[in-house]
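Standup notes
- HV: blocked on the assembly model, inputs below
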Amino acid sequence: MDYYWDDLNVGFIDQFGPISVDREEVLAFAERYDPQPFHLSDEAAALTHFGKLAASGWHTCSMMMGAMVRHWQATPGWQEGSLGAMGIDELRWRKPVFPEDTLHGKSELIEKIASRSRPEMGIVKFRTSLTNQHGEEVLSLVSTAMRKRRPQA
Amino acid sequence: MDYYWDDLNVGFIDQFGPISVDREEVLAFAERYDPQPFHLSDEAAALTHFGKLAASGWHTCSMMMGAMVRHWQATPGWQEGSLGAMGIDELRWRKPVFPEDTLHGKSELIEKIASRSRPEMGIVKFRTSLTNQHGEEVLSLVSTAMRKRRPQA
């Protein structure tokens, strides 16, 4: 299957994961990139609304990206249509993510925009979310990316 | 100095960093969280608009967070006023980030909103950006966070 801009329609849904959240990795990420006490120990987290050790929100984003990229790479044609990411909107950390959680990812195409200035590409917006083993949405965001148009015969 | 919601005004500017981008760390982050070829080798990146090995955009966000948290922790009173982050909007990867780059961070308070339902807290929005050694803005985003109100006497 091809995944040019022309081949994707609003409502297209893609799924990725599962992501297993590892305690040692939560700690290692936090030590390097987000050394707030509630990302480093259960004791400190117990004093906050997290209640117990919670992953950095940026770690959750990074785990999402890792699972998504591996899914793309296992989907023939997907990467060939990509022209890169432009940015993210409406990123929301809706619930804490805890060690031993299992997260499932879903992306839905919510908007397509043709480019007037660059007819060889188009823009797609996806709403991507992660849901934990309790069915709770823990993260959501809207990404904007560029994709190749189908070459004209 | 105190950093309650009441103490911060629109136009307040905070600076953090510098961040030194390390090649081995760029590779390690990409292997785990964003294994796209242009984040893993100069050769693959040379075939893209990056031109040479570029950091994952999520790695850039994570490096930003690390430098910001360390700055907060070195600023007496800052963390005591925090009630956590709600989310991110308008995240834009404006230019590639390369190994050996040096990034400087800046956050500007752009909006304050009192909470009607929770008079003990208020909302602040910051525009945060990273600029490289050439003066180019490489990353920008708008964060929304909650801060404590100053206790009434």
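- HV (later): unblocked. Strands of chain B lie at 13-20, 82-93, 102-114, 121-131, 137-148. The mean pLDDT of chain B is 96.
- Next: hand off to the docking folks.
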